[in-house]
Amino acid sequence: MIKRTLQEVAGMIGVGDFESQHSNVLITGVTIDTRKITAGNLFVPFKGERADGHAFVEEAINQGAAAALWQSNVPNPPMHLPIILVEDTLIALQELARSYRKQLNVKTIGITGSNGKTTTKDMTASLLSLKYKVQKTEGNYNNHIGLPLTILGLEEDTELAVLEMGMSGKGEIDFLSRLAQPEVVMITNIGEAHLQDLGSKEGIAQAKLEIINGLKSDGCIIYIGDEPLLQQYFEQYNGGAVLKTFGSNTSNDLYPTHISQSDDGSCFKVNISDREFKLPVLGTHNVLNALAAMTAASFYDISFEDMNEGLSKIKLTNMRMELLQGKKGERIINDAYNASPTSTNAAIELIANLPGYQNKILVLGDMLELGEEEKEYHIKVGESIDPNKISAVFTYGELGQFIAEGARRVFPEDRVYSFKEKQPLIVQLQKLVNQETIVLVKASRGMKLEEVVAGLQE
């Protein structure tokens, strides 16, 4: 992580006339949260609508922070403390990350997509770790605040950094890409997430394609070739980067020739290797994420013969196809971190076709940020569930009731349950589970369906 004197930090963020008795104070790492302070941190406060982080600057330093930034329009700066006055603390954080990035020899891989970017990040980092010192985005630090913090957390001898890039609107990924200066960029897919803000899948595709704006001129673009919107764009591409595709279709550079599922993961083969690969993660969609990661690893001269070792060591971020066990012996797939129609349908397909279970139950919640047609998207998910393969459907939330409405068009009434509170849902669900049951829990993050998972385990 960044280790610089306060004088050096001031120069990196453009404070040219910095003079202080604390100039030689050494900062080690950066934090924006007083609950996460470690000794030597630079604390960066933000002035928000409800709370002002400047009120905690003195507390942060008492807890071990070496120094802090202070926004100049906030009154009464504690000049007796090691602080740097800046016009805007967020911009200062971003500029510090930009300067630090330029000082590093690290190569970066940028990953975006409507679904699967976090899982693909985890897989890519695991494969690259076979040969290099690798760091990756932790948690969901993938936005205009999180990415600068991730960059500032890079060790100076890190060789490759795998960076997730998220967005809610146009221009955000452009900023992140130019900040990270990636050598490789990856687009996992174009789905329905952020339709509310971007209006159409075409708008989403254009926003995701901003990731190439910061790409090194001789870099590599890895994208899912099954997506027509990306195909159309790259047919006209005349830049200097190498193009590599992955996906289900045989027209891709890398595609699966065989996939089989079991409750401990997936086995698959690909078109350019005789080996069978074992992925300790469920879902055909995650096999495609693995293909993206394998393409990136191949670009960095990791052989397909060695990739099984990297795949076996994958450590996924929590609540992404996480396989758990309930107190009655039922198996639970906790995929409650996020949801869109595309990712939800993929998870349902996985459960429907997973062998070894007599009782298959879906617990589905609201899929958020889908725009004006959100009701129709939820109904279509419910209608698409196969009653011959799924035993029961539980829904939660205001929009979840539309999944139930769609499901009732194909299911008997007594196999569809709709709730607006979690506790009665848990109580009813517990009546139906046993050792021959597998339960999928899937919704957007705001629905907090991990509470249902916890209810099954208590």
TrEMBL record:
It comes from Bacillus mesophilum. One of its GO terms (molecular function) is ATP binding. This is UDP-N-acetylmuramoyl-tripeptide--D-alanyl-D-alanine ligase. It is found in: Cytoplasm. Keywords: ATP-binding, Cell cycle, Cell division, Cell shape, Cell wall biogenesis/degradation, Cytoplasm, Ligase, Nucleotide-binding, Peptidoglycan synthesis. Residues 111-297 form the Mur ligase central domain. It catalyses: D-alanyl-D-alanine + UDP-N-acetyl-alpha-D-muramoyl-L-alanyl-gamma-D-glutamyl-meso-2,6-diaminopimelate + ATP = UDP-N-acetyl-alpha-D-muramoyl-L-alanyl-gamma-D-glutamyl-meso-2,6-diaminopimeloyl-D-alanyl-D-alanine + ADP + phosphate + H(+). Residues 27-101 form the Mur ligase N-terminal catalytic domain. GO terms for cellular component: cytoplasm. Involved in cell wall formation. Catalyzes the final step in the synthesis of UDP-N-acetylmuramoyl-pentapeptide, the precursor of murein.
